[in-house]
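Record DUF2062 domain-containing protein, 204 aa.
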Amino acid sequence: MPDPIPPASLRQRLGAALRARLPRLPRLRREDLARLPLIGRLAAPLGRPALWQWRREPVARGAAIGAFFAFATPVAQIPAALLCALLFRLHLPTAALATFVNSPLTFGPVYYAAYLLGAWLLGLNPSAAEAEAAAAGVSGGPAWGERALALLSGSLVFAVLAALMAYALVQGGWAWALRRRARRIRALRQVDARARPRGGAGCA
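=>
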């Protein structure tokens, strides 16, 4: 009769299978973060193990912080996300990688839409040319302050929504992975139980 598979071995096998099926993200190491502007001076705090441990809540909050700064500002997104992650002890790699949901390739349409949303919230009625100028950061005219306020308002709304979505997606995906792993463990244990000979079956 084969020996039953220990639960620890089952967890290791399931964890390896789950990691093999996940999409491969670029590896972000401590050395890479230490070379970033404004972050190199924080090399000692970056070495804290708690900032790199793969735990559910810090990862979810790190994703939320990164997604927030991805839309809140078009510059210094990664340094801002990492500083907040350091302050609140969140998962650093997730905070940095989440900023890439909004990149220079998407800045134009994203901030154009953010300006239109902000103008609508403030009760403004901008023309298409004014909206494009505000999204591009072009100043000029007496209404420039209103344009900047509209762009800022829309960007903050986008940032908050992105943070909430990122947090919910990580929490939901994590819970789904745990449930799926639990089902696999139960299935493996049932198969192992069926494979065992029943008590007394082998007695003469």
